[in-house]
């Protein structure tokens, strides 16, 4: 697939009273049109920070300190504020964690959708905007009557589908959904994932799904990215990741799954996730890694792309180690 999204060297630091915390450290990856990437890792590993950074929605004391996010040849980081406001929803849509609870309770669903479109297409006629909203509702399999309803009249799954409908109103090239199925029952989770799948097919967007349910994710994504302490430690096809994970942390994650083809809710692996304020030197994973070598506590591993196209950030894959 033609690459529509290139993230390069993205860096985010939080300046807190307790010190500097690097929440995102030199994150780079590409995605093709129609490609789906699942992003996993413990809480605090940088998944949501990455989504916010791509949207340029990092709030103080956090700061984006470097990197580029290029969609269709346009670097979002280089846009002025107005350009970025237009790019949101138009080029890149973000469905935040708990989005369904942030629908306006006193405004009809339709009015909220119309507002979203109008803010980007001020000259569009009312009927064209309404057509666009109805089309989006149909795409997510919601009845047209939802247009006139209020959020409290909808189930959790329906609300989540409204949020997806809003996300695709302007047919963005990239969609980021942060934990889109959390707080939903198992059947509804599947429906929401299938909805994302279908709308993504319709508009051929690249999709980033942030989540912790590896089992559910495995059925819907093409590639899996594993984050640890603000870094991308492995990116592999879903098949490679589940059958032969490369990175020791990814291996631990996969082997901690109760059942690969079933409900793989990640239970965690031994040892505490490090505080970003006091990261271990060298490879941040070394205190928990059963493969750690001498240099792991002092030398920071750099991300490298292996011959098979997989990305890995680990000294086990350095040339001299492999020899
Ligand atoms: Fe383990 Fe060393 Fe690889 Fe880090 S670099 S994951 S400590 S082997
Ligand atoms: Mg999160």
UniProtKB/TrEMBL annotation:
Chain segments annotated as transmembrane: none
Organism: Devosia yakushimensis
Membrane topology summary: Peripheral membrane protein
The protein, known as: Dipeptide/oligopeptide/nickel ABC transporter ATP-binding protein
Lineage: Bacteria, Pseudomonadati, Pseudomonadota, Alphaproteobacteria, Hyphomicrobiales
Listed Gene3D superfamilies: P-loop containing nucleotide triphosphate hydrolases
Molecular-function GO terms, alphabetical: ATP binding
Keyword field: ATP-binding, Nucleotide-binding, Transport
Protein localization: Cell inner membrane
